[in-house]
From TrEMBL:
Protein name: EfeO-type cupredoxin-like domain-containing protein
Organism ancestry: Bacteria, Bacillati, Cyanobacteriota, Cyanophyceae, Oscillatoriophycideae
GO molecular function: metal ion binding
PANTHER family: AURACYANIN-B, COPPER-RESISTANT CUPROPROTEIN COPI
Keywords of this entry: Copper, Metal-binding, Signal
Coiled-coil annotated spans: none
Species this protein is from: Crocosphaera subtropica (strain ATCC 51142 / BH68)
Parts of the chain that traverse the membrane: none
Record's keyword annotation contains Kinase: no
């Protein structure tokens, strides 16, 4: 009996989420958020290193790498908690699940997504030594 209630609740929650996605896509407004991977001085940082989103709203995360070395934007749990519409970089557009983005020096990419599940998620660069040197951050999804 208890399992049945939980199952029902999950179904209701899921359909709410799906409705949110279509509502959000119908509304074309997108909030731009810019994140730099590293800086010109070569410091191992994300700028900013704290990001906040509101669940159900659509965002375009503009990633750039002004540093002399390549970096990763890795946040698997945040990606899993979001619905990704697409990632655009150079002349390539990628659709579907994204967990990690690699940016070479002076590269840029745009990640269009709708954060869905409220929570706090860790962000790091997955190049050995970078997270340990401070290339970490956190991403918060606030409930609507
Ligand atoms: Cu890095």
């Amino acid at each position: 009996m208890k399992e049945k209630i939980v199952g029902l609740l999950f179904t209701v929650l899921l359909s709410c989420c799906l409705m949110n996605v279509s509502d959000t896509l119908a509304a074309t407004e997108t909030t731009d958020v810019t994140v730099s991977l590293g800086n010109e001085g070569g410091e191992l940082v994300f700028v900013p290193n704290h990001l906040e989103f509101v669940a159900g709203k659509k965002y375009k995360i503009k990633l750039d790498n002004p540093s002399p070395t390549k970096h990763y934007f890795t946040s698997k749990d945040f990606a899993d908690a979001s619905w990704t519409q697409k990632v655009e970089a150079a002349k390539v557009e990628v659709k579907g699940a994204i967990h990690e983005l690699e940016l070479k020096p002076s590269a840029e990419a745009e990640w269009v997504l709708v954060p869905m599940k409220p929570g706090t998620y860790e962000l790091h660069c997955s190049i050995p030594g970078h997270a340990e040197a401070g290339m970490v951050g956190d991403i918060v999804i606030l409930s609507e």
